[in-house]
Amino acid sequence: MSLDQLYRHLWSALAPGEVPELTGLAPARGPEWIFELVDGLELAAGSRILDLASGPGEHAVALADRYRARVVAVDPVVSQLADARRRAGERAISIAAGRMEAIPLAAGSVDLVWLRDALLHSGAPEATLLDCRRVLRAGGHLLLHSAFATGRLAPAELELLEADMHVDRAGLDAARVEAAISAAGFDPVRVEELGSELAEHYELADGLGSRALLRLARLERHPEILRERLGERRFRAMRGLYHWVVFELLGKLSYRTSLLRKPE
Ligand SMILES: C[S@@+](CC[C@H](N)C(=O)[O-])C[C@H]1O[C@@H](n2cnc3c(N)ncnc32)[C@H](O)[C@@H]1O
After folding, report:
1. Of 150, 154, 74, which is closest to residue 116 (Cα–Cα)?
2. DSSP per-residue string spanning 168-225
3. How far is the CA of 188 from the centre of ligand 1 (A)?
C-alpha cells in the first residue's frame, strides 16, 4: 500500500460515529448466552449444581433461581464466600471453602459443574478436570468457560498477568486444557469460541473496555505516584485486571465455552 493510499483511508477510520462496514455483523454474545447452553440440558428442579470458583456468588444465585436447583458454591477466598453467603439469602445455596483441584464434595454427587472464568488460576488443570469428573454423576455435565492465551500474547505480557493477577500459564494453555479434558474422559457436547465477544459486549453495555484502557494509561503514565496512593497490592491488581480486559479486546486472550458430558 502506498503512502497515498494509506492516507486516503486513515483519518476516516477514527471519525466519530459508526463505520458502516463494521456494523451488521453477528452481535457479540453476552454472559446470558452461557446460561442458554445449560438451558438445553433441561435440568430437573432440585438438581444439584456446583458453582466451582464461585467468587461472590452472582452465578450461584442465578443458577439457583433459573433452574430451581440446589447449588453448592465453592471458592478458596473467604471474603468472596462471605459475599456469596449474603447474596444467597434464603435460597438453597450452600457455601464451602475449597479448591478446584480437590473439591470438597462426594463422588457422583452433582448433576452439573459450572466452572466459569477460573481455570486461569489453576496450575494443575489436569487435577481440576479429573476432580470435576469425580464429583459428577454419570451422564452429568461440566460447563467450562475459560480464557486461553493466543499466539498474540507476548511472553512479557503473560509474565505480567502471572505477577499481577495470580494467573498460572498452565490454565491459559488451550492445548494442555484440551488434553486434560480428553484424559479425564469427558465427551464434548458443544464447544463455542467466543473470542473477544464478552469484552465487546461489556464495552458496548457500559464502556468497560475503554474504562480499563484509560485507567491503564494513567497507571502507566504515573506509576510512582499511583503506587504510593493505591499501595503496591491494589496498584498491581488494577494493572493486571486492566491488561486482562485490553488483552481480551486485542485477541491476546480468547474465551472458549465448552459443554462437556461425563459418559454413562
Ligand atoms: C475471575 S473470578 C471468577 C468468579 C466467577 N466464577 C465468575 O465467573 O464470575 C476467579 C475465581 O476463582 C477463584 N479461585 C482461584 N483459585 C482457585 C482454586 N484453586 N480453586 C477454586 N477457585 C479458585 C477466585 O477466588 C475467584 O473467585
Report:
1. 74
2. -GGGG-HHHHHHHHHHTTPEEEEEEEEETHHHHHHHHHH-HHHHHHHHHHHHHHSHHH
3. 23
User: Based on C-alpha coordinates, what's the Rg of the chain?
Assistant: 20
Which CATH topology does 29-150+165-196+252-261 take? Rossmann fold (3.40.50)
Alpha helices, H only, 17-122: 32-39, 58-67, 78-88
- Write the residue with the smallest CA distance to atom 4 of ligand 1: 55
d(CA 84, CA 61) in angstroms, rounded, equals 8
What percentage of the chain has pLDDT greater than the value 90?
95
Indicate the domain borders of the chain.
Answer: 29-150+165-196+252-261
Find out whether the beta carbon of 121 lies less than 6 Å from any atom of ligand 1.
yes
Q: Pick the residue whose CA is nearest to atom 19 on ligand 1.
A: 99
Q: How far is the CA of 79 from the centre of ligand 1 (A)?
A: 12
* Rounded Cα distance, 239 and 237, in Å: 6
Residue 18's pLDDT band (cuts 50, 70, 90): confident
